[in-house]
Every structure is written in C-alpha cells, then in structure tokens.
Amino acid sequence: MLVAVFGLAILSACAPSIERRPVYAASQASDALLRRQIDTVLTEHRVHTAAIGVLRDGKLVFEHYHGDAGGVPANAETRFDVASITKTVAAETLLRMVADGKVDLDEPLYRYWVDPDIAGDARHRLLTPRLILTHRSGFPNWRFLRPGGKLAFERDPGSGYGYSGEGFNYLWRAIERKQGASFPALVDRYLFKPLGIRNARLTVDHADQQNVALGIDETGKRYDPGCRPGFCWKDGEWSAAGGMLITLRDYSRIMSAIGDHTGYGTQLAMERDRIVTDRGDEAVVDCSLYPTICPEAEGYGLGFVVVDQGQRRTIGHEGGDWSQLTLAYTHLPSRDGIVIFLNVPMLQGVTPMRDLVRLLDPTSPYASRFEKWASEAS
User: For the purposes of burial, counting CB atoms within 10 Å of the CB of 302, is it exposed (0-12), middle (13-18) or buried (19 or more)?
Assistant: First the structure.
C-alpha cells in the first residue's frame, strides 16, 4: 500500500499540477484529521518530540506538537535543536550584513583570521564568504573526522563541492574579528531582533533545559543541551553549522523572511537562489531513480539548498544529527512550505520524515529524497 501511495505522489509530481499547495488547516474538520494522521505517523515510529508547521503565502497556517519536552507536553514554546538548519541562520545573517555593506561576498578572509592548522598552506588565501556559503571551501565536514583531528584542505578552494560545517565556523570566526562582535551577537542584531525572535539560543548552556526537546538516544536516555553520548560542548561555545535551539514559530518567521527576502532585497535574493554548486550524489532528487521528477537544476546557492523545477523553485535546508532530523523549505514564488522538527535518533527519524512529507506536500522534491533514504535505511 505504501508503494502505491508513493506512486500516486510521483504521478502527481509529473502532472501539470506542480503548483499544488501543501496541506493546510482549511477547516476545523480537515485540521483535526491532519493532526490525527500526523500523530499516527509519529507514534508508529516512536518519535519522542516533534513540531510540524505548514506555511502558506509565508504565513504559518498550521502547527502541531507531539510528545514531551522536559516533563511538559510539547507546545509552541518548545525549543528544538535543529542541527544543520542552523546554517540557514548563519547564511541569512551574512546576507543582511552584505546588504548593509559590512561584508563583501568575495573578500579574502585571511585578512581577518587564519586557522592555525592551515596557516602554512597558501590556499587559505583563496577563502571567501561566497566559496564557503556554497560549500566549495575545500574543507572536510569536521576536522575531528580526520586523522589527528587537524583541519586541512581536501581539495583546492573553489574546485568542487564538499559539505563542510568547518567552513561555516571558519567564515564566522573571520567575520567576528572583522566586526569586533561575536557570531551570536551579530545574528541577534541582524536577524533575531528585526524578526522579533527572543528565545532562540546559539550558545551552549547546559542548564537551559526549560521547555527544550532534549536529545535522546536509542535507550531512552536524555542529554543536556550541547551534549551527546560521550561528549559535551563547553558552556558558551557556539557553532554556525548546527546546534541552535529554536521554536517552530520563530523558525517559521525566518522562513517567511527568506521567502520575501526582507533584509536585503530582490537582487541579492536572486544571487542567493542562483545554483552554483552541484551536490552530486547528495542531490535532493536522484534522477537515476526518479527521472520523471528530475528538476531542471539543483544544488547550493548562497547557504541554501535550491531545487529548480521550472514553475517553482524550492529553497531550504535539512538537518540531521545523532538525535535530530529536521527539514524546512519554502516554494517560490508562492512562499508555501513546511517546517518539520523531529527529536528522535536520526536514522529512526528517516521513515517518519518521509511519511510526513508525503502527507503535507506530496509534490515536494523531498518526497523522493526521503523515500530513497528510507529504502537505504531499511
């Protein structure tokens, strides 16, 4: 039956109704039905805590919460660790600073900071905000995955795609020194305060556990914010690549701003959405498996994953870590989209994420992405 349902979704994606909008709370009856369907998926797959939202014309028109957060039922004030979706906040903040004349996308970062691990490699002089935002820094995802735990180039900057959290942190260490202000302070100044976001957290605070969907492992053990099995970040540390705590409503405000490019205008938004980097095997749609829904182009723009389907362009990001699986995107020009935060061991979350995307937005390019992941995980 699941195969048949997915087949219908694929057929609908092939049809001219590509502009079909996501499900939303059109009436009390449909709202109640959708909540029951969502809870069925989340309960069946043992998702501990979740927040699901649907945007229409840039407005949050449906929100649903599931599970518990620190002993209270999950609710609109529950904050989730959104993993790599944090990168969109880093990118959105930088674009606003570009519009304000504080940063140039092509300025060399070595003028402000050089990581000691690569100081002896002249290629550090090639690094720019543009290369890092489009994941062409040449860095690995994380230095601790390399022998010896040292940062090093795995390819020449600008020569090809390589997803890198290290790159985002490198960029913001340089911007901090240029601006004389911390990454969290700059995000607050350029993004959070203008959008009225007050309770999001970018720095680690192990004691800040009120209404937080705490990470949880396969045995059911919960962990302090900033911690995972065998490791904790220190209080006060930050990452521009992951670990932000934020509510569904607050992140939906950010998605709305991304959709209507407030803060930097149309010209820079067009540059943001221009697909620069081919993600290869990491593409949202694997055209070898789903040729009938193969987009015209897909890859990275300036900090965002972009899928060009001709009549619409989907911009957003995923996040996945040891106890998080998250997804947020908006379709342009309609500004319809979805936000899904799952607090669950990551691999366990792939199948419910697939089912939720099918349910909320069956013509989404992410329907095939999570179908592929679920097949690989089974």
Answer: buried
